[in-house]
UniProtKB/TrEMBL annotation:
This is Integral membrane protein. Keywords: Membrane, Transmembrane, Transmembrane helix. Residues 1-47, 788-815 are annotated as: Disordered. Signal peptide: none annotated. InterPro entries: AB_hydrolase_fold. It comes from Streptomyces malaysiensis.
Length: 815
């Protein structure tokens, strides 16, 4: 991050240069003193820093004024004020304009462009499996002094993430090397009907007609995909993780870092080193996967009767290099590279440069080796080595089971309100692997069907993907039926909850004339909002069924070596018909799922409304740092949290005023994370106001190691004062429910929604049911904000020397 600028930058009389309000530590005292001059020695002003929630908004909407100006920041994320308030610190409240002249100065932190501002970011939908796998890392139960188990859990998650990269690149190899270069180009019937493949056909006896050279040419596709993933990760790394957080003095009065929540640690939002290491390892794994796809079928031929001894020796040497490279990749992934107790700016230069470079060199040697002339080599059947999909899926299953064991051990040591008995992380990892299989297998299924014409892939001698992918596709209809069944169960539950709530709705509106339609609508909204708390009972069973069906698919493919339709030929007619139907339907559904993601991404490129919807998904899914998968969409909090921390630190130290950081929805999570990061003295001048907040309801339950009861209690104890607003009709926000009895001190009573039941002289039209939005429209909001400011101690402007030396500059910090 660069230097933060204030709206009231000034010009020094000596040089005439503009000096930013956030000055370095060596700024002369007289220069700092002039910036906080106020008429009549009035007390310092108060500030409300607004942070919006998912989906984003405009500064004009947040501040309620069409005239707003940039205070500090850039086009990606910035702080805005009303134009008339740009120099509000210099003026007493009575000289300010607008309806809030007696209240605090209001600023809006707009961060929506971090996730949904650029239309090209909609393509991040294709990285959805990587994002979900990264979430599994943060979903572990609390540690309770079991650091070894925590590290083992993180290791298994990183290995699962590595298998997802290998699976994606293996899927690209299946399309390019097997379906196009080996099966279709090697078949006169397939290549003859496609002029663009004619130069690869053996019928033409051209230079490219040999199978090894066709494979070497087709390796461009998965190799380019690996390079693209590296480029995207490196570009977003430069924009997010590469900038160190602010440098702040070590807080001697604060508790030791080891006893504080992880989000307090200075290096938590600085993932530069781990992302660089994992990016190198995953890039190398991708190149090595492509190299294996070239080397394995080539060495299989060289070891046969028609092979050459020299070529066979070179093949064994390449296989040795592949094994050594795989060991090096796994070793780098196993190494714990994330440091949170300090801002670790060092990079493992040798690892991040040599590892992918060496893997690329092995790939180049494999291309040369495959392109070595073998005149008698002919391709037939499926590409040798495509059984690797079975190994990958078995490896993913074993790693997820190991994750589950670690999660159960941690949950048993510290049970709490953790969903699925601590198994939320493994369940989400199963879904990540399922999504990866759908993306990889769906593309292969559709392309095989296209290349094979009207035939069914796997049902004859034509073009066909690996048998396992067809078995996995066959399981999709059964999974969708199970999902529909779960949704029906929860729909019935909503109806029953609504009927149970109907007699109680009028208790909140005494004296009003009942309206059956209005009452039913309010009750239905509350019942649907309660479904959020039932999400674990959808995710858990669905993940378990996915794991079981995946195991059945592996068993069926391994035991029969045939697609389900052929394997069920000897079964009873009903079973055979069901297998045929599921196979055909699953193949189409797997392809449709891929097409839906691509179509949605393309629509988001053209439609701002669709782009906003996709941005909401990333607001929730990319809050966490990329600790497990470097190709996941970037963590926007690594920019937003330091931004907020910088603003709170510099404003309070510069002006000495009281500050309320006011966060809605996901903005409340960012606000809480920023409050954890500020200096202990600054927290004494800061109040926290959250509304529609998922801190306890979602983050506290799904990420208990970071937002669990212990961590929220710590936040309540460290911040000067905190109030939380919520509604029964809100499907995302909820009360904090602190376990030490201080919950009512934080939580307000549930806000009335709608504000008015029927028509009144003040509300002649029906009041809307607000649900998750428009909390500031409730009169309670202004009262609670005023109450927070009243609870903060009255401040005086800091002495000039303190203002000058209290400024902070960007850079590395040791704590």
């Amino acid at each position: 991050m660069g230097t933060i600028l204030e709206p009231n930058d000034r010009t020094t009389p000596e040089s005439g240069e503009t000096v930013p309000a956030t000055m370095p530590k060596d700024t002369p005292p007289d220069a700092a003193e002039a910036t906080t001059a106020r008429k009549g020695g009035a007390p310092p002003p108060d500030l409300e820093l607004l942070v919006h929630g998912v989906g984003g908004t405009t500064p004009e909407e947040m501040l309620g004024d069409p005239r707003t100006s940039l205070v500090t920041g850039d086009e990606t994320a910035a702080v805005y004020r009303r134009t008339v308030d740009l120099d509000a610190e210099r003026r007493p409240p009575e000289e300010r304009e607008g309806p809030d002249r007696e209240g605090p100065i209001r600023e809006a932190y707009v961060w929506c462009n971090l996730t949904s501002g650029n239309s090209s970011r909609a393509l991040w939908l294709l990285l959805l499996p990587f994002m979900v796998a990264n979430l599994a890392h943060w979903m572990r139960p609390p540690a309770d002094r079991r650091e070894r188990t925590v590290r083992t859990y993180g290791l298994f998650v990183r290995l699962v993430a590595l298998t997802l990269t290998v699976l994606l690149i293996a899927g690209a190899c299946e399309v390019g090397l097997d379906l196009f270069a080996w099966q279709c180009a090697g078949s006169a019937d397939c290549a003859g009907g496609k002029s663009w493949l004619g130069f690869l056909s053996p019928e033409n006896h051209g230079w490219w007609s040999q199978p090894g050279r066709r494979l070497a040419l087709a390796a461009v596709l998965p190799g380019a995909l690996t390079g693209l993933l590296w480029y995207l990760s490196n570009r977003t790394w430069s924009a997010y993780e590469s900038s160190p957080p602010l440098e702040r003095p070590v807080d001697e009065s604060a508790p030791e870092a080891g006893n504080r929540p992880a989000l307090c640690l200075p290096g938590f939002w600085y993932g530069r080193r781990i992302v660089a290491r994992l990016r190198a390892a995953h890039t190398a794994a991708g190149f090595l996967t492509v190299a294996a796809g070239l080397t394995l079928p080539t060495t299989a031929y060289d070891r046969g009767p028609g092979g050459s001894g020299l070529q066979d020796a070179v093949g064994w040497a390449l296989l040795t290099l592949l094994v050594m490279g795989a060991v090096a990749v796994v070793a780098v992934v196993c190494f714990r590279g994330r440091s949170e107790t300090k801002v670790d700016g060092e990079l493992d230069r040798i690892t991040i440069t040599a590892l992918p470079g060496a893997a690329l060199g092995v790939l180049a040697l494999s291309v040369l080796y495959a392109g070595w002339s073998r005149p008698d080599w002919a391709s037939s059947g499926k590409l040798p080595g495509n059984q690797a999909f079975i190994v990958i899926v078995i490896g993913e299953g074993a790693l997820i089971v190991a994750m589950a064991v670690c999660a159960l051990v941690l949950h048993r040591a510290a049970p709490g309100r953790t969903p699925l008995y601590g198994l939320a992380g493994p369940a989400v990892a199963v879904l990540a692997c399922g999504l990866g299989a759908v993306l990889s297998g769906g593309v292969a299924q559709r392309i095989a069907d296209w290349l094979d014409g009207g035939a069914t892939p796997g049902e004859g001698p034509g073009i066909a993907p690996p048998v396992l992918l067809t078995w996995l596709a066959t399981a999709i209809p059964a999974l969708l039926l199970a999902l529909v069944g779960l949704l029906v169960i929860f729909t019935v539950r909503v109806w029953r909850t609504r009927d149970r709530l109907l007699p109680t709705i009028m208790d909140g509106y005494p004296g009003e004339r009942p309206d059956a339609v209005r009452t039913r609508r309010i009750a239905s909204t509350i019942a649907r909002a309660g479904l959020t708390d039932s999400a674990p009972w959808i995710v858990g069973p669905f993940a378990l069924l996915t794991l079981l069906f995946g195991a059945c698919a592996v068993t069926g493919a391994w035991a029969t070596h045939q697609v389900p339709g052929r394997a069920a030929d000897s079964a009873p007619g009903v079973v055979d018909a069901a297998a045929q139907t599921a196979q055909a339907l699953g193949s189409w559904l797997m392809g449709v799922a891929c097409l839906m993601l691509v179509t949605w991404a393309r629509r988001a490129y053209r439609s701002p409304s669709a782009r906003r919807t996709i941005g909401i998904l990333w607001d929730v899914g990319t809050f966490w740092p990329r600790a497990a998968h470097p190709f996941a969409p970037p963590c926007y909090a690594e920019r937003a949290v330091p931004d907020l921390t910088w603003r709170m630190e510099t404003w309070t130290r510069r002006h000495g005023g009281r500050l309320v950081i006011s966060g809605h929805s996901q903005g409340s999570v960012l606000a809480a994370a920023a409050v954890w990061q500020v200096d202990h003295r600054t927290r004494g001048r800061v109040a926290l106001l959250t509304y529609g907040s998922p801190l306890e309801r979602l983050y506290g339950r799904w990420f208990p190691a970071y937002f669990g009861p212990t961590q929220l209690l710590s936040l309540h104890g460290e911040v000067r004062c905190w109030r939380n607003l919520w509604r029964y009709t809100d499907p995302i926000g909820g009360p904090m429910l602190l376990p030490d009895g201080s919950g009512p001190e934080v939580d307000c009573d549930a806000l009335k929604d709608p504000l008015v039941y029927g028509r009144t002289p003040e509300h002649p039209l029906p009041a809307p049911i607000l649900g998750h939005g428009d909390y500031q429209a409730d009169p309670v909001f202004d009262r609670e904000r005023a109450g927070l400011l009243a609870r903060l101690p009255e401040q005086t402007p800091p002495p000039p020397q303190e203002r000058a030396t209290g400024q902070m500059s960007s850079g590395r910090s040791s704590g």
